[in-house]
Design goal:
heterodimer, A: alpha+beta, Glutaredoxin, 2 domains, five-stranded mixed beta sheet, two-stranded antiparallel ribbon, 7 strands, B: alpha/beta, Aspartate Aminotransferase, domain 1, Aspartate Aminotransferase, domain 2, about 40% helix, about 15% strand, globular
């Protein structure tokens, strides 16, 4: 009886923990083996399943009768449903492992594997997950790390005060180190929920005036827990910047308009949390594994 | 017979969700008296019997002797030494089959509705040059035709398939007139009605303790003393000999010579306690009670169009109702009842040969005992009404 095809994996998993289910798994396997040989199942496990559920349906005699009479047909339906769902689950797992989203690289639709993690995976920008528009991503005028003429660009929408953006940093740096054909464009999305996010963005852009943007970028993430009103000058000093020039830039909010522009672009693109990455049409929200980036990059580099 | 009082003696029947237990032809429940008696052995004198000479061993010997005496009285044996403890009915039959000093060509006669325990030993015996003949169950005329030249008649008293009985009084008489010995399988009769071995004049009788409130792994073989004396030893070894040398041995007395190895003392003592309990309640009352329940279920089944195996009259079917619901698989019926806490047996009940010969794919079976109630039967009828609708 084909119902054993469903019973086997269920009992096999339960059998890891219980001897009783191990026996049932063996019976289901034996039954399935017989079914494949077009012989009747002689362990009686199919019969037990059928009778048990028929008895439970006795409150509704018509339903019980139909279940009892058409059990073989129902078994086939359940098996087909199981095979179909197994196929889609397999595809989902593959996509999740490869692209970090079970719906594939070009989708940001709901993925159950993402929500099983206990904590939020990104710093919320809008509070509502929404559709992303990779075509609206802007690159020109934003800081670039790596070869400006690289074949592939990762665009990151991040916030210097966001712990998840910080969490993503080591992987991003490793990727840039390993793939010389890839560069990074960084967009500031200073989130108001985080203290010093705007100030940090401002400070980083002021460092850009002295060609130290990426060094300052790195120190902001490396010492994220130290952010306060005065630390930005300390960082400037640490990086041997002209502190007077830096102070002038920082105190006059020289880059306020650029930061607002970057934020506006983030909203246009549909960014709902940081970090969000775009690699051509593929998008990744939240910190990702190295292999997830690798898979998308290698797909695109060919 | 006070059923409510009896039920209080059975721990499992006093649980919150007590089972409706109708599988008594397979195994009966155990009263607290039997459990306590067995615990008494394990707690107070858990030693060897018949060997050592310390206080505990002497207590075991005394208790097992009392147990043998109790069981001998229950079956009205002339002498308690005619009672041999076995593991079960199957072992008792095998003991006889392997111990009689057979001559090549000896004939064994059985009915066509025997449990595998009383069939397979005789099929195997053909390898030793013995012949196995079969007569129609409870057909005295057929029995008369087949009895000529038979050495041993080995018959079931009450069938576990449908509860019907062989006319053993008549058959034993005929067998003896024809110089044949009779081995009676009383596994399904001894728990429910009086089996008086002397009144029946039966030569050998076997029964199981677990079908009569006793512990599992305990059975009994009765044999007339002069016949037991003629038997070879089957299982031999520890405690079956008085003395031994490197190439010879001197057999122990009867019955110990047939009880090889260290015995199930707790089982013996528990079995005797079960027999005591049955005697106290009264086998006649038990039989009447079961027949009443059988009649109740039979009436309902007749109204529901359920096929009952065996005689139509419930009085001829002891406490057993073997049945089929149309073409429905009997296992389905049993499994569905089990969901409602009603426990019956399904299948061929180890009587495959009869089912195969009659081309019946098994049956469901409800079998009653002293603790079952009319309300429980009513609950089964209610559930069967639902099951019948699935046809």
């Amino acid at each position: 009886m084909v119902i054993c095809l469903i019973a086997l994996p269920i009992f096999a998993i339960l059998g890891i923990f219980s001897l009783k289910y191990r026996q049932l798994a063996w019976e289901a396997f034996h039954c399935l083996f017989k079914t494949v040989q077009l012989k009747p199942c002689d362990t009686g496990i199919d019969q037990r399943i059928k009778s048990k559920y028929t008895a439970k349906l006795m409150w509704w005699p018509g339903l019980a009768r139909a279940f009892y009479k058409y059990f073989a047909v129902l078994s086939w339906i359940f098996v087909i449903l199981m095979l179909v769902s197994t196929y889609f689950t397999g595809v989902g797992v593959y996509n999740y492992e490869k692209y970090g989203n079970c719906n594939g690289p070009d989708s940001n639709a709901f993925c159950i594997f993402n929500v099983v993690k206990p904590n939020q995976e990104e710093c919320s920008a809008t509070g509502v997950k929404q559709t992303l528009y990779p075509d609206k991503v802007k690159i020109e005028g934003y800081p670039v790390r790596g070869d400006p003429n690289a074949k592939l660009t990762i665009v990151e929408y991040g916030c210097f005060s966001c712990p998840y953006t910080k969490e993503a940093e080591p992987v991003v740096r490793q990727i840039l180190q390993d793939y010389h054909d890839v560069n990074l464009v960084y967009h500031d999305v200073p989130l108001s929920i985080h203290k010093y996010s705007i100030e940090a963005a401002e400070a980083a852009l002021c460092a850009k005036d002295q060609d130290k943007y990426w060094a300052y970028h790195d120190i902001l993430f490396d010492k994220q827990n130290l952010l306060n009103d005065t630390v930005f000058y300390d960082f400037a000093q640490e990086l041997n910047l002209n502190v007077t020039q830096f102070k002038e830039c920082y105190s006059t909010k020289k880059y306020e308009a650029e930061i607002n522009q970057s934020y506006a672009n983030a909203l246009d693109v549909g960014i709902y949390g940081t970090p969000t990455f775009f690699i051509k049409q593929a998008n990744l929200v939240g910190p990702q594994k190295y292999k997830t980036f690798k898979a998308i990059i290698e797909d695109n580099l060919g | 017979m006070n059923i409510e009082k009896i039920r209080k003696d059975f721990p499992i029947l006093n649980e919150k969700k007590a089972p409706i237990y109708f599988d008594n032809a397979c195994m009966t429940l155990k009263p607290v008296q039997v459990i306590n008696k067995m615990n008494e052995y394990y707690e107070q004198y858990p030693a060897c019997g018949g060997r050592s000479h310390h206080r505990l061993a002497e207590k075991v010997t005394e208790e097992t002797m009392k147990a043998r005496k109790e069981i001998a009285n229950f079956f009205n044996a002339k002498n308690e030494r005619e009672i041999i403890f076995t593991r079960n009915t199957t072992e008792g039959i095998n003991l006889v089959a392997n111990s009689i000093r057979w001559n090549k060509g000896d004939i064994i006669l059985t009915s066509d509705k025997e449990h595998n325990s009383n069939l397979i030993p005789w099929i195997v015996a053909k390898n030793r040059g013995l012949r196995h003949e079969i007569f129609k169950f409870n057909d005295v005329e057929d029995f008369k035709k087949k009895i000529k030249g038979v050495r041993l008649v080995s018959i079931v008293h009450t069938s576990n398939v449908d509860g019907s009985s062989n006319n053993v009084h008549e058959m034993i008489k005929i067998a003896h007139e024809n110089n044949a010995s009779v081995l009676l399988d009383a596994a399904q009769s001894a728990p429910h009605k009086s089996v008086d071995v002397r009144k029946l004049d039966v030569d050998f009788m076997v029964a199981s303790g677990h079908k009569m409130l006793g512990p599992s792994g305990m059975g009994v073989l009765y044999g007339k003393m002069h016949l037991l004396e003629e038997l070879n030893q089957f299982l031999v070894g520890g405690d079956t000999v008085k003395n031994s040398h490197y190439h010879t041995f001197e057999p122990e007395d009867i019955p110990e010579r047939f009880e090889a190895g260290l015995q199930n003392y707790a089982g013996m003592i528990g079995f005797a306690e079960a027999v005591r309990y049955l005697k106290k309640v009264g086998l006649k009352d038990i039989e009447e009670h079961e027949l009443k329940l059988n009649a109740q279920l039979t009436d309902a089944f007749n109204n529901l169009g359920i096929t009952i195996l065996g005689p139509k009259d419930p009085k001829l079917r002891s406490g057993v109702v073997g049945f089929n619901v149309g073409q429905m698989n009997p296992h389905d019926v049993a499994l569905m009842l089990n969901t409602h806490n009603i426990m019956i047996r399904s299948g061929m009940h180890c009587v495959h040969s009869w089912f195969n010969a009659h081309k019946i794919n098994g049956s469901a079976r409800a079998s009653f005992y002293l603790y079952n109630t009319s309300e429980e039967v009513e609950e089964m009828i209610k559930r069967m009404r639902e099951i019948v609708k699935l046809r």
